[in-house]
Amino acid sequence: SQDLKTALVGRKVICYDAVDSTNLVLKNLAREGAEDGTVVVADSQGTGRGRMERAFFSPPGKGIWVSILLRPTFLPQDAPKCTLMAAVAVARAMEAFGLRAEIKWPNDILHDGRKLVGILTEMSAEMDRVNYVVIGIGINVNIAPEDFPAELRAIATSLMQMKGAPLPRVAFLQELLRALDDLYASVQREGFAPVLAAWREYAVTLGQEVRVIGPAGEEFEGVAADIDAEGALLVDTAEGRRRVLAGDVSIRPR
Ligand code: BTN
């Protein structure tokens, strides 16, 4: 963090060539007592994981596959908002490289409707105390269209494709960790309200007609009106306003 000029995030950065999943590695370190702000980054992941246990494509040399350990003072029910905080941090890092981010609620960063970044937040809590939060961020940096497996080609893209030129991975990671350090310090000081306000600036979901698909496959449609203080999406349907919590739904344009 001396080189990074961060207060906390990246105090310790552990780099690997190849791991199964940076989230798994960091959760193990967390159980062994690793400190607040510890970062694990890998050049490639064998079993990178996304939400809903999906595999996450993490080839060597072309991406940022990173996990950040936090030991926050906020309550366990606030932890899902770390996903929104991470999305804002990525958006800020992108801005430092001249790229404008669009965030799809809750955690996807898109370009031309295709995914650039995935975020997976995992938490361990006991009673009313957070033991740790691990925020995993996967960024497709220098991935060419033909590098993606066929099934991802239509739905995934990269910062390089967006910019039309490769980006320096280490410099991007530094910007990301600095942005996250700033945001985390503000959350610890004054809560999530400023993070939610910043998130709204990049949100493309708000104001749009969406279809929500729940965990049991139930569906409904409406207009995504806003997010509330919990980070839940508020959807105005014909039957009234419904509240959609992150983690257990997928949404798509109608
Ligand atoms: C998603 O889009 O569903 C979330 C993807 C999260 C991927 C990142 S890559 C670094 C960290 N390690 C993992 O195994 N997953 C996250």
From TrEMBL:
UniProt keyword Iron-sulfur present: no
A GO cellular component annotation in the UniProt record: cytoplasm
Catalyzed reactions per annotation: biotin + L-lysyl-[protein] + ATP = N(6)-biotinyl-L-lysyl-[protein] + AMP + diphosphate + H(+)
GO BP, sorted A to Z: protein lipoylation; regulation of DNA-templated transcription
Chaperone is among the record's keywords: no
Coiled coil: none
Residue ranges constituting the BPL/LPL catalytic domain according to the UniProt record: 1-188
GO MF term set: ATP binding; biotin--[biotin carboxyl-carrier protein] ligase activity; DNA binding; transferase activity
Its EC number(s): 6.3.4.15
Enzyme class at the top of the EC tree: ligase
Swiss-Prot/TrEMBL keywords: ATP-binding, Biotin, DNA-binding, Ligase, Nucleotide-binding, Repressor, Transcription, Transcription regulation
Residues reported in the UniProt entry to bind biotin: S21, T22, N23, Q45, R49, G50, R51, K115
Protein origin, superkingdom: Bacteria
Role according to the record: Acts both as a biotin--[acetyl-CoA-carboxylase] ligase and a repressor.
Sequence similarity: Belongs to the biotin--protein ligase family.
Name of the protein described by the UniProt record: Bifunctional ligase/repressor BirA
Species: Selenomonas timonae
Gene (UniProt): birA
Included stretch of the parent chain: 69 to 322 of 323
